[in-house]
Structures are given as C-alpha cells and as structure tokens.
Design brief:
mainly alpha, globular
C-alpha cells in the first residue's frame, strides 16, 4: 500500500515583509479605495456590464460580462495582499498580481475614456464621469499600490560600500 515515498508539501504562511507606517498607510488607502469600488460595483452589478460596454472597445456581450466578473474578482482577491493577511508566499504573490492587474485595468480605462458620462469605477451606484476626477482616483490607486509593492519587494540597488 505505502510505497515508501511520502513527500508532503510544506506551506509556510506568514504576514509578509514588515511594513513601515508609511507603507501600511498606503496599503490601507489602496485597500479602502478598492473596497469602495468593489462594494459600489457589486451593489449595482446588474448595470456594471452595460457601463463597461460603453468604456471598453469590446462589442461582444459574453466578453463584456466576463470582463465585469473578472474586474470584481480581481479587486476582491487583491485585498488579502494589501491588508497584510496571514498567507503563503504563493497566495501573497497571486493576490499582489491581482492588485496590480485591477489597478492597471482601471488606470487604462480612466485614461482612455475622458469622454464617458460614467467612468465605470463605481458602476451606476455613483456615476463618476470620465475625465480629471476619474484619472486622479486611479492615479492615487495605482500610486499607492506601486508604493506598497516597491516597499514589499525591496527592489533597490545595494547601496553599501565595501
């Protein structure tokens, strides 16, 4: 029955890299912004695909509905990384990837739809027109996320001298 090969996978969860107060604040601001967007989009989810149909260059209804679902799922799955939850390295990386995808998606949508009557950031719960306010919202979202990712990955050159 047992062939003598008993290899188990060891998953070691952690809270991730320690964050200084500035990085924690940026992560909480980003998580708060995503949560506000997520709740507003879910509150009027039945209208969300039609709003995205206006701001996206896609005309196929099944693809628009899939995009709406993926946008909401990406925002939801981004929260564990931003909140610094107790996760494995793989889950933290996937959550961080979803955060980057969600912020990038909304940044591109807001920058390419200044003409839209509704930017889609909050579905039809709060109709924020495309333009300066939508761009500022997404720049703050993307900027705070970039600050958190930069601090968490410690992507810096070694400044020590020998």
């Amino acid at each position: 029955m047992a062939c003598g090969y008993n290899k188990t996978m060891k998953i070691i969860p952690s809270y991730g890299p320690t964050r200084n107060p500035r990085t924690k604040a940026a992560a909480w601001v980003c998580a708060g912004m995503l949560t506000v967007m997520l709740v507003a989009q879910l509150f009027s989810y039945e209208d969300f695909p039609s709003v995205l149909n206006i701001v996206l260059p896609i005309n196929e209804q099944p693809l628009i509905h899939l995009t709406a679902a993926l946008a909401v799922i990406a925002e939801l799955l981004a929260l564990p990384y931003l909140l610094g939850m107790y996760l494995s390295k793989l889950t933290r990386g996937v959550s961080g990837l979803f955060a980057v995808l969600a912020a990038s998606f909304w940044l591109i949508v807001s920058l390419t739809n200044a003409h839209a009557a509704n930017s889609g950031l909050f579905s039809t719960t709060f109709e924020l027109p495309g333009g300066l306010l939508a761009a500022i919202w997404t720049f703050v979202l993307f900027g705070t996320l970039a600050t958190v990712v930069y601090a968490d990955t410690k992507f810096r050159h070694d400044m020590s001298t020998s």
